[in-house]
């Protein structure tokens, strides 16, 4: 599942109350605000994108005048609607454009599809949402380069919109009433943005100590949990679940933010099923933390360390398919066993079963493709 997102519409409250709600939204990861009047004040609160029909906005808004939900003027020919013409003109001038469309009839639904083919975002507003209009618009625009956003009032409506047709809308926008509502919306997005990887139990077939190589250590800006790590491997089609350093040992304290990943040439799984070479990972990147059941969450890379360390080769086999990876040869480096427990590479034995991910697709520049590639 691709990442979902949430925007807010600046609440109709005195500035001091609005400021607190917008600040809470930003702290919850919501960094886009629809506001027509106070963009300068809001920008001072943090790194926030303003959606506005003013030239100083970050994303130009059409179809909304702040007096109700929508201001679309339809004519007999959809191409002559005021919203469509303005959006087309703005896009030709290189603007990032979002169109705000109230769905009152089949004609508005058709306009949303037509406008969606030229703008970057469309915000869909329904006075009495049913699933059908969203289904139609999502289906018609699924191959277009546009993000569909549903205007909602509560968490239940948000979940319905985000899961419609399994694909769902890309994002939601709402006018926050209180802090609790903001937290619930942010949590919903976090849960729906996670994906699950099917992990298999592969049998270890070879363990071999090697000479030193350049090893990559990934420090995240998140506290990782026991049972959680990253998918890493020498083969893009087969990766091991390498456990985070959340467990203490008699030699070193735990580093619950760290995954001691492997050598520079290995792959690591990032967002949207796209891999990176460990040598390419740097501060600010987003990677996937994966637990023993395959559930994922995005984590931010805070730092990467590359140091020369002795390595160990681990080979495992699942259903006749062998995969390999190189890891640092140290007691603190762990894989995840078939029982979901962390197992140190120093204690690993032939025949042990460990969690792996097998991908049927080949990789080209980190993206999964339908092509035959032999890795050995």
CA-CA gap between termini: 30 Å
Number of domains: 2
CATH topology-level name of the largest domain: TIM Barrel
Helix content range of the residues, please? 10-25%
Give the DSSP E fraction (strand runs of 2 or more residues): 35-45%
CATH superfamily of the largest domain: Aldolase class I
| Computed CA radius of gyration, to the nearest angstrom | 24 Å
Name given to the CATH architecture of the largest domain = Alpha-Beta Barrel
**In DSSP terms, counting alpha (H) and pi (I) runs of 4 or more, how many helices?**
7
Write up this protein.
The protein has 376 residues and is an alpha/beta fold. Strand 7, helix 6 and strand 8 form a beta-alpha-beta unit. Helix 4 packs parallel to helix 5 and helix 6 packs parallel to helix 7. The relative contact order is 0.12. InterPro entries: DHQS, DHQS/DOIS_N, DHQS_C. Belongs to the archaeal-type DHQ synthase family.
